[in-house]
Design goal:
This protein has 538 residues and is mainly beta. The protein is built from one helix and 40 strands. It is globular.
Length: 538
């Protein structure tokens, strides 16, 4: 770090997730299996091991790589996008960047195909070890659209499927198609002419929208194409097609089967709803049973959720040659019977738990993330050190902000910060959905006096540093800071090193952190920040 900027020291950060639902009993598991902003899951089985990846958009490190042996408990073993030069997210909105990675394995090599939206298009990266290092991207210039996925046919041959515009002119907004390409796993190139295998979706006459997230698999000599349909909001669903040949023709399942997963046919006023389910991937166990991972959301009220799209798990049933993840009109269970697999030890990723980072390791844990590119932070002396730089959370650049996902509707995040701010400088904890929508509590200096300030930004018309919600003058630092998320309301407190907690602002409207308000595809991140510049309007 440069020595020119003022530096804030964070000795630790503690995250406490609080769930009110009943914990799973022996032989059960809780949904979601990966709570918080872990969308677009893709899974592969190699021997007794399962590996899973998620989207991260313009946050880095990108594309978390998970390992499990029981499908329920997951340990993050790395990030596939983990170094400068692989991808460039500079200038991108937080919901651009890497969409819907798909992981696969062939012979002794792992593959991830992915789209970097507004930053290069479709690409493939490879690794011998899923922990990494993953290669630099090989760009698939002849593959348009988004959501590529690889299929290695047991009978030989490799194929890539993806979403793109249909032949000719789209007939309506959201009209998309699924395309099939031959793929060479040695040269990492597609070959030959692409073929459109689905036009629009299950029922073209009904003008289905956003057919995407395709995956090919094979069972009993039959080829299956599974895809999401209906968009990623509460009309989201998963649909299935099948064919006798890999290049089709693909026939959709009957209406009584399709969609094979959705929550759009349930009462929106039901208690503890799970919504927006779709974008699934399937995996077969050694006992022949199939399981699905998919994304869904958990609103705390109406259509509001701050935690983003999460990863869920359900068994797959088969009847008459068609799979079903969930029968029509059935709610996604939040507790279910676990797969018949040996238990796998891993840190908690769902439910009620406490996770504390003391920053004594040589590098950050793999779940910490920054916006667009690493900047303004270092580890040293048992602390996370952040520079108070002019690049602020709201200006679309790479601020001094290091954060972890908010994984529960109710969560408490605390830290200890040692900082001597000049006028206009501040450091503390921020809860961020994107550049235009955030909440923060920070130690600052106003008119020569130390103060703890709570700020809120609820759109691009608000000042870059947010509008001041409350400010309290204090006598000295260092201090502790606390953010208590309670659905759509957040509380902000401070305490001196040994003193009791004191309120700065309670019951602050946090619906600005919801996807319904902020838009996009990400979820709330909470963590330390430091910045300098002009104070926001009051």
């Amino acid at each position: 770090m440069s020595s020119a900027a003022n530096v804030a020291r964070f000795d630790w950060v503690e995250y406490q997730g609080i769930e009110k639902t009943a914990a799973p009993a022996a032989g059960q598991y809780a949904n979601p299996i990966l709570a918080g902003f872990y969308p677009d899951p893709s899974i592969v089985k190699v021997g007794a091991d399962f590996y899973l990846v998620n989207s991260t958009f313009s946050l880095v490190p990108g594309i978390p790589v998970w390992h499990s042996r029981d499908l329920v408990h997951w340990r993050q073993i790395g990030n596939a996008i983990d170094r400068p030069g692989q991808l460039n997210f500079g200038g991108l909105g937080m919901s651009k960047g890497v969409f819907a990675p798909a992981i696969s394995h062939h012979k002794d090599r792992f593959y991830i195909v992915n789209t970097c939206v507004d930053c290069g298009g479709n690409f493939v990266i490879t690794a011998r070890d899923p922990k990494g290092p993953w290669s630099d991207p090989v760009w698939l210039k002849d593959v348009g659209g988004i959501d590529p996925s690889l299929f290695f046919d047991p009978d030989g041959g490799a194929w890539l499927v993806n979403n793109d515009v249909p032949k000719g002119t789209p007939r309506y907004d959201g009209h998309r198609a699924i395309w099939l390409h031959r793929f060479d796993p040695e040269t990492l190139r597609t070959t030959g002419e692409a073929k459109m295998i689905v036009d629009g979706g299950v029922d073209p006459a009904a003008k289905p929208i956003w057919i995407e997230g395709p995956h090919l698999f094979k069972k009993d000599g039959v080829y299956y194409l599974m895809a999401a349909e209906g968009g990623t909001s509460d009309r989201h669903s998963e649909v299935i097609f099948r064919a006798d040949r890999v290049d089709g023709p693909y026939v959709p399942a009957p209406a009584g089967v399709n969609p094979i997963l959705t929550q759009r046919d349930l009462d929106p006023a039901r208690p503890q709803p799970v919504t927006s389910s779709g974008h699934a991937d399937l995996v077969q166990l050694d006992d022949g049973n199939w399981w699905a991972v998919f994304l869904a959301t958990r609103p705390y009220e109406g259509g509001f959720y701050n935690t983003g799209r999460e990863t869920f798990l359900l068994p797959v049933s088969w009847a008459n040659g068609w799979p079903t993840i969930l029968p029509h009109g059935t709610a996604v269970p939040q507790v279910a019977k676990a797969p018949a697999l040996p238990a796998f030890a891993a840190p908690p990723t769902t439910g009620s738990f406490v996770a504390r980072d003391d920053f004594t390791a040589p590098k950050l844990a793999p779940y910490w993330m920054v916006m667009r590119s690493p900047a303004g932070y270092s580890l040293g002396g048992g602390a996370l050190q952040l520079q108070a730089r002019p690049e602020r959370i709201g200006d679309g650049k790479s601020p001094s902000f290091v954060a972890r996902r908010q994984q529960n509707a109710e969560a408490i995040v605390t830290t200890a910060v040692n900082f001597a701010p000049a006028d206009g400088e501040e450091a503390g904890l921020a809860a961020v959905q994107n550049d235009n929508f955030f909440l923060a509590v920070g130690l600052t200096r106003e008119g020569g006096k130390l103060a703890v300030r709570v700020s809120r930004r609820a759109g691009g018309s608000d000042p870059i540093t947010g509008v001041t919600v409350a400010s309290k003058t204090i006598s000295s630092g260092p201090i502790r800071l606390r953010v208590h998320a309670r659905g759509g309301r957040y509380d902000f407190d401070y305490a001196t090193a040994s003193g009791p907690w004191q309120p700065v602002a309670h019951d602050v409207d946090a619906t600005n952190l919801s996807t319904a308000t902020a838009g996009g595809f990400v979820g709330t991140l909470i963590g330390p920040y430091a910045q300098s510049g002009t104070q926001a309007a009051r």
